[in-house]
Design brief:
Length: about 170
């Protein structure tokens, strides 16, 4: 259900305001008695300390399984570069396995959680080319984030069930 809300969430700016000592996410600009800390409100993504916006890199594991058994041809551990933009888009590339990523990100229920709805394409292993959902959990003071993406084939009688996932620890 959350995946259906991503396009709508990604179109409107999200403001991260400080109110009574707590960070509050809102779609309304911060008032003069609060402080805006989001890139959209601050006007400069590079200076926003608690923002997912920017470029992230990490060694990434791509893998697949059919009926619970690892698909060896799908398994790679390769560098990945992702770029999160202030308008809610995410894009990236892993040149070593050919995978290109494009999709949307949106704030989750906590200031460190971000929801993803992305598509992988151009991967050398054809089965990885599909739509994924997942999340990024960021630790901003240390500038690292844990990315997890999953995709499943629809269960069709007589067809094998497949699961694909992408996992990494990203740094900027």
């Amino acid at each position: 259900m959350a995946a259906f809300a991503l396009p709508a969430l990604a179109k409107s700016p999200i403001y991260r305001c400080l109110k009574d000592g707590q960070t509050v996410l809102t779609d309304v600009p911060c008032t003069t008695t609060t402080t805006a800390t989001s890139p959209a409100a601050a006007g400069n993504p590079a200076s926003a300390p608690e923002s997912i916006v920017g470029q992230w890199r990490g060694q990434t594991q791509f893998q697949g399984a059919q009926n619970g058994q690892l698909i060896e041809e799908a398994h790679t551990v390769v560098p990945l570069t992702l770029t999160f933009s202030a308008d809610g888009k995410v894009s990236g590339k892993s040149a070593d396995n050919g995978c290109e990523l494009l999709g949307l990100w949106a704030p989750g229920v906590t200031p460190r959680l971000f929801l993803l709805d992305v598509t992988l394409e151009s991967c050398r292993y054809e089965g990885l080319n599909r739509r994924y959902t997942g999340s990024v959990i960021a630790t901003f003071p240390k500038n690292f984030a844990q990315l997890t993406l999953q995709a499943f084939t629809l269960p069709i009688l007589g067809q094998p069930t497949r699961r694909y996932d992408v996992e990494t620890t990203l740094r900027r």
